[in-house]
Amino acid sequence: MQRAELEELRQREANLTALQAIGPRKKPKLEGGSNGGGDSASTASSQSNFGMSSRSQMALRTRLKRINQRDLIHLMEQERDTSHSHMLYSCYLK
């Protein structure tokens, strides 16, 4: 009986450690709202504030969009100015 309880306790601690390593499950709100609550809420908010500061710094960096030639051809086919252009026809040949 005690072995089963100890094994269950170890498993629960391992799961909590893994969840803490992964990070918060929900995306933090970008707005700075006030959180009220007990000790567990203040501990959770201090951990999420650390995650929010690093994510907000990442949000300041411009995000690169990668496209391939097929995407470019599709865009050029849809645009009126480039739908019959020489560049589009040369893209078809590649």
Describe the structure.
There is one protein chain. The chain has 94 residues and is mainly α. It has four helices and no strands. The chain starts with a helix and ends with a helix.
Topology:
Elements: H1 2-22, H2 39-60, H3 69-78, H4 86-93
Subcellular location: Nucleus
Pfam families: TAF4 (PF05236)
Protein name: (diamondback moth) hypothetical protein
Can you tag this structure with a few keywords?
mainly alpha, 4 helices, TAF4, transcription regulation, (diamondback moth) hypothetical protein, TAF4_C, transcription
In short:
This protein has 94 residues and is mainly alpha-helical.
Largest sheet, strands/sense/barrel: none
**Poorly predicted residue ranges:** none
Fraction of residues in β-strands: under 5%
Number of strands: 0
Helix content: 55-70%
Keywords: Nucleus, Transcription, Transcription regulation
GO molecular function: DNA binding; RNA polymerase II general transcription initiation factor activity
Subcellular location: Nucleus
Pfam family, one: TAF4
